[in-house]
Amino acid sequence: MKIKLKTIYASPKLTADVGSVIDLPEKEAADLIQSKYAVPYIAPAPIKNAKAKKGETATIPTGDSAEQEAQELEVVATDLEEKAEKASYGFRSAAKKTAEAARKAADEAREKADELNAAGKK
Question: What is the number of structural domains in the chain?
Answer without folding.
Answer: 2
